[in-house]
Amino acid sequence: MTTIAIDRSRLQRLLADERSAYAEAHPRSATAYAGAQPHLLGGVPMTWMNMAAGGFPLYLKRARGARVTDIDDREYIDFALGDTGAMAGHSPEPTVEAIVRRVQDEGGITAMMPTFDAAWVGAELARRFGPPVWSFTLTATDANRWAIRLARQVTKRPKVLVFAYCYHGSVDESFAIPGPDGRAVARPGNVGAPVDLAETTRVVEFNDADALERELAHEDVAVVLMEPALTNIGIVLPEPGYLDDVRALTRQHGVLLINDETHTFSAGPGGCTQAWGLDPDLVTIGKAIAGGVPAGAYGLSAALAERILADPAADIEDTGGVGGTLAGNALSVAAMRATLGEVLTDAAFARMTEVATRYTAGVRGVIARAGLPWTITQLGARAEYRFCAPGPRTGSESAAAADLDLDEYLHLYTVNRGILLTPFHNMALMCPATASADADAHTEVFAAAVADLTG
Ligand SMILES: Cc1ncc(COP(=O)(O)O)c(C=O)c1O
Questions:
Q1: What does the mean pLDDT of the chain come to?
Q2: pLDDT value at residue 423
Q3: Shortest CA distance to 420 belongs to which of 91, 169, 55, 83?
Q4: Cis preceding linkage at 194, omega within 30
Q5: Phi/psi at 318 (5° precision)
Q6: Residue 422: CB within 6 Å of ligand 1?
Q7: Distance CA 383, CA 362 (A)
């Protein structure tokens, strides 16, 4: 197939038009952003909000299901869905009802007492993901941090192995890429690393079993922390047999395996772990499971749970480093129970995946007809396009395909026409309320963006 190259000066002209249209359409958001500068770091409640295309973020007025409305009263089909935090849709009714019941009718957002909801959620997570024993956190980051600590405690080994260009939240050990000699070095921009990354971390490319074997042979790795498919540098799918190799090699070298299902939850009700029949020692998750209320969780194999509970040197109850005051609070477990029990159900995942398949086919068709060297990859309810073809095999290949101008152009083009993609990804996620017509609306706008770009 012949492919065409992007005309960069045309792209710059189009980008300038889209930036002007964005500024013109959102005066209230622009004013609110300017007014917030003095007392918020970077002028935003969370600094990554500055990565939104267009120079300032849109301020939220209201959101329901697959729709958000900004303070300039413009409504969008929301494919960003809080970067997975709102995968259940915005304010899904059963979750809202459970929150109101807990907070208003019964009372008690957080107390030093368990509620019945927690055991129900533990059993449901076990049904979906496999590990039988669960504990709660407030974020996926904390789930990963505490899972890593437990793994170190049990194995008596110091290091974590991760994959180049992974993201697992603000976990110190994970911001690594391979240096020239293969040793871990910090990713550019890593803030205040406590020690040289090579002291805590080994890092390899995804889909490279030989490299994994080489690094595990040092026998100093406690745990492999992985997403079964990378999702934070585009989507990089595992090649056939690769995850079997990972499991075999980790077992062979006495290394524990964490599946971080925070994003790959999109693959189905039990994430990739269930969808692909995986057998990790630990599963971590956060973001979506409580419908947007802060909540995370980690699950342990029975053997691991037994070893931790029996270890007299492991203080998992007080100040041993695996707990949080608000973790497992009554509000977040109530929200988890309602979200898992009534919103992100098995049936909902089937529908969400169907819509994502339609979205993916639409984008794929546009790319093919235009002859662009781009690809789109689907993982259940989630899809993302990348500016390379064939799709990347590793995080580094995917990172090399980044094109910030194209990203900004496509984000602005779509937002100016009523569609929100995930900032700093080209990711679209479907929630139970996302309709086939929403996927088609995106295809139409994406086709127009490509037509304007390619002339
Ligand atoms: C795979 C994965 N794990 C963990 C996290 C951390 O989530 P949080 O920032 O909610 O702690 C993220 C965030 O994007 C993620 O993508």
A1: 97
A2: 86
A3: 83
A4: no
A5: -120, -100
A6: no
A7: 11
Question: What one-character-per-residue DSSP string does 195-230 give?
Answer: S-HHHHEEEE-TT-HHHHHHHHTTS-EEEEEE-SSB
Which stretch of DSSP H or E encloses residue 184?
strand 184-186
> If you measure from the C-alpha of residue 369 to the centroid of ligand 1, how many angstroms do you get, rounded to a whole number?
35
Task: Return the closest-CA partner of residue 89 out of 98, 80, 97.
Answer: 80
In this structure, the strands spanning 282-285 and 296-300 are antiparallel
Pairing between β-strand 67-70 and β-strand 75-78 as defined by DSSP bridges: antiparallel
pLDDT tens-digit series, residues 271-284 = 999 999 999 999 99
Nearest ligand 1 atom to alpha carbon 142: 11
Instruction: Please work out whether the CB of residue 298 comes within 6 Å of at least one atom of ligand 1.
Output: no
Task: List, for residues 21-75, the tens digit of each pLDDT value.
Answer: 999 999 999 999 999 999 999 999 999 999 989 999 999 999 999 999 999 999 9
Torsion of CA 92, 88, 347, 446, to 10 degrees: 120
How many A from CA of 68 to the centre of ligand 1?
A: 22
Residue 5, burial from CB neighbour count under 10 angstroms (0-12, 13-18, 19+):
exposed
Q: Which residues on adjacent β-strands are paired with residue 223? A: 160, 256
pLDDT bracket for residue 2 (50, 70, 90): low
Tell me which residue has its CA closest to atom 4 in ligand 1: 168
Residue 42's pLDDT is 96
172 C-beta neighbours (distance < 10 Å), count: 18
**What b/e readout covers 119-131, taking b as 16+ CB neighbours within 10 angstroms?**
eebbebbbebbbb
Q: Is 169 in the pocket of ligand 1 (CB under 6 A)?
A: yes
Q: What confidence tier does 5 reach under pLDDT thresholds 50, 70, 90?
A: confident
Residue 155 in tokens: 């194995």
Q: Quick: pLDDT tens for 225-280.
A: 999 999 999 999 999 999 999 999 999 999 999 999 999 999 999 999 999 999 99
